[in-house]
Amino acid sequence: MNVIYFTNIYARNGWKWRLEIFTADVVPLSSPTYVDLGLAVVSDEITWAAKYNKLPIGLSETPSLKLKFNISALEDNTTLQHLRDRLFDQFVQYTFPTLSGISASIDVTDPVTGIVSQVVVYGTTPKPPAVKFANLSNVVRLTSNFGDATLDFADLKPPLTFAEYFGGGVSATHPIAFSGCQRIAPPAEITIDYENGAVVGEIEFMHLTRFVLEQINPTMVDAKIQELSAGTKVGYVTQNKWTGGRQRTMAELGNDDPNSKGTVMYSRTELQDAATAVYKQIRDAVLRADGWVGIPFDILGGLMFANFFQQNPSNGQRGGLLTGGLGDVYVIGRVYAPTVNEDGSVDTVAGMFSPGSKFFQFKNLFDFMVDVCECGARAYYTDVGIGIQSLAHNDNSFPTTTTITSNDIQLKKILKSGETLGGVELACAGENQLINNYGTSLVDNTFNVKPYFHNLFSDWIFGFENGGIGFAGEIEKQEGKLYYQASAGDFIAVHASCDFKDNAAYQVEANFNSAAFPPLNASDWDWNDIRDKFNEFYAYWRRTFGVIVRIGNAIMRNFANPSQAKIEGSTYPSNSIQALPSTIGSIYSFDSSVTPAFLNVPAKAILTSASMNVMDGTVDVEFICVSSPITVTLL
Q1: Which of 47, 362, 569, 630 could covalently link to 66 via disulfide, CB atoms 3.0 to 4.6 Å apart?
Q2: How far, in Å, CA of 180 to CA of 211, rounded?
Q3: DSSP code per residue over 303-341
Q4: What digits encode the pLDDT tens for the residues 136-178?
């Protein structure tokens, strides 16, 4: 139905709100009819909430909007009955049209016969779409003037197109507070209000971004990246040889080494573009707005750490930062078997998009995002996606607001050291590491991090090569390892060191210990000891310089402080103080009047939870106080 249902709400704190709902449909909205539900349909209970689970690390819990509908008031006509029925039968399946044919091929040399065969791996015309269908659901939008008297209800009508949305600035003309959809869980509930003779339906809408990401599985991203990256990108590679003091993956077309495999390296940009393209395709269908482009967001945000990865020069020393930053970063996308099947296909045996890979073990892209965002300090939902502030990146995603005084918050509880961390347990590329804080050793609170993208070493196989030490790592075990392209077809693993300054101080020694680098000539060591010596050296790098150490140290420095109090209370937001669900993760300043002086509570605090009663304008909030918020400086 080409209808948008709405209700204008004048809250008790003077703020104006507009609530809009439109039902799931495969037909885009075009010049829709607006139906005013009035105040009889939506009850006084409208709860807008968002929070972090204990600590403001990683992706926050999914923001939600909980509404109560007077179902009895949706019976007067077919238009209202349509809304009533769809609220309890919310899904419509949308089938995407078949794409125009894309015939993308790769050249593969059979290592046994030496014959070059052209293998079509992406299919021929017509090509099925990467996303075959999506579940569309009812959409709710909540907008507000947030106390700005210059904006009236007419200004709160959200646009439907990209041009409208950003034509006058989001905050100025279209301040959307929340966009959400109905999921399977939690289910809609119906209760009977005998006192008022009404049927009441309680429905919780979850953030639009989660609803879309949960429908994207790794296979969809795989298909989309092949579609977007069509072309000859495959050569044969020696199995992660170590040459000239650095690990390299060399694409050599025509190599007849039977131990070689055809390999595709994907850049961070290609991964991002593929994941975002699938996201937009489903999101636009859900929003029923063709061409609603929106802002691309960093689905692979954990790679922001790559800004601080070092190059790996031929002498084994640590080089400078990657000159192109994130644009320089590559991962092994797929490793093809060295032989061609009878049907002309080539099996994928390793890499990010191989069967049985860690990436393919994620049920959907939302679960993947949860893991990836643990490598960032905080990640939060916006109307158009997810924003990330990395531990290794100081930006303005979480601005410091004006100072909160005792007049702005009604304190309910102060927990001294309520959420202090006792340790960080990290698992990455088969390497487990526990970072403890001795000052909080009695705290039984450990944060677990599992970085997908990394710069760690794996086990190696050793032998003689040209009078020196030749050794190779199994490329099948390199999933998530980061590379940069030194030259065409020549990919070098980023250095095991990953330095950055944390609050103007190095986390560990600033200079890489080059003196510990092993000799390149086998005659310098006893052959019986060489494997142990090399692996001891790699373990030293992992313990001291690896990305997981950087993540663990940064988390501990920020969230293992004995003075890390937890503050609970209520606020009454005004134009100057807006501790809202959309601002969780933001850093606030506490005036000395807020907490008793003897508690020695830090003046800075991060908003970790906010639940707003939209009708009366009050917000139940929780803060975690931190001695000094994350500020990081590039080397």
Answers
A1: 47
A2: 8
A3: GGGGGGPBP--TTSS---B-TTGGGGEEEEEEEE-SS--
A4: 999 999 988 888 888 888 888 776 554 444 333 334 455 678 8
Query: Measured in whole angstroms, how far is the alpha carbon of residue 151 from the centre of its chain?
Result: 33
How far, in Å, are 205, 261, 375, 501, 567 from residue 608 at the CA level?
Answer: 20, 48, 18, 25, 10
**Contact residues for 550 (Cβ-Cβ < 8 A; gap 6+):** 305, 308, 391, 392, 498, 499, 500, 507
Alpha carbons 588 and 572: distance in angstroms, whole number: 15
Please state, rounded to an integer, the average pLDDT across all residues of the chain: 74
Neighbours of 34 (CB within 10 A): 11
Q: What is the pLDDT of residues 270-307, one digit of tens each?
A: 888 888 888 888 888 898 876 555 555 556 555 555 55
Distance CA(438)–CA(2), nearest Å, equals: 62
pLDDT over 80 (residue 412): yes
Specify the pairing of strand 246-252 against strand 490-493: antiparallel
CA distance 348 to 341: 11
Could you tell me the sign of the dihedral formed by the alpha carbons of 78, 79, 81, 85, in that order? positive
- CB count, 10 Å around CB of 526? 9
Q: How confident is the model at residue 211 (pLDDT cuts 50, 70, 90)?
A: very high
Cα distances (Å, whole numbers) of residue 188 to 20, 40, 406: 18, 19, 39
- Cα gap 34→12, rounded to integer Å: 25
The whole-angstrom distance between residue 332's C-alpha and the CA centroid of its chain comes to 20
**517-548 pLDDT, tens per residue?**
555 444 555 656 666 766 676 677 666 767 77
Cβ–Cβ < 8 Å for 71, 88: no
**Secondary structure of residue 443 in the 3-state scheme:** coil
Helix 530-545 vs helix 547-559: crossing angle, to nearest 10: 30
- Tens of pLDDT, residue by residue over 377-398, are 677 777 666 766 655 444 334 4
- The predicted model gives 493-509 an average pLDDT of 59
Q: How far apart are CA 270 and CA 300, in angstroms?
A: 11
The confidence score (pLDDT) of residue 82 equals: 94
3-class secondary structure per residue, 369-425: HHHHHCCEEEEEEECCEEEEEECCCCCCCCCEEEEECCCCEEEEEEECCCCCCCEEE
Q: Count Cβ atoms below 10 Å from residue 390 Cβ, excluding itself.
A: 28
58 has a pLDDT exceeding 90: no
Q: Is 371 exposed, middle or buried (0-12, 13-18, 19+ CB in 10 A)?
A: middle
More confident of the two residues 357 and 253: 357
Place of tokens 């090569």: 465
- Contacts (Cβ under 8 Å, ≥6 apart) of 343: none
Here the tokens at position 372 are 């990836």
- Structure confidence at residue 614 (pLDDT): 93
β-strand pairing of 423-428 with 446-449:
parallel
Q: What's the angle, vertex CA 215, arms to CA 120 and CA 335, rounded to 5? A: 35
Q: Chain centroid to CA 171: how far?
A: 24
Strand partners, 42: 69
pLDDT given at position 6: 93
Instruction: Dig out the tokens for 103 from the structure.
Output: 């015939």
3-state per-residue secondary structure call for 515-569: HHCCCCCHHHCCHHHHHHHHHHHHHHHHHHHCHHHHHHHHHHHHHCCCCCCEEEE
Predicted TM-score of the model (pTM): 0.85
How many angstroms separate the CA atoms of 119 and 108, rounded? 7
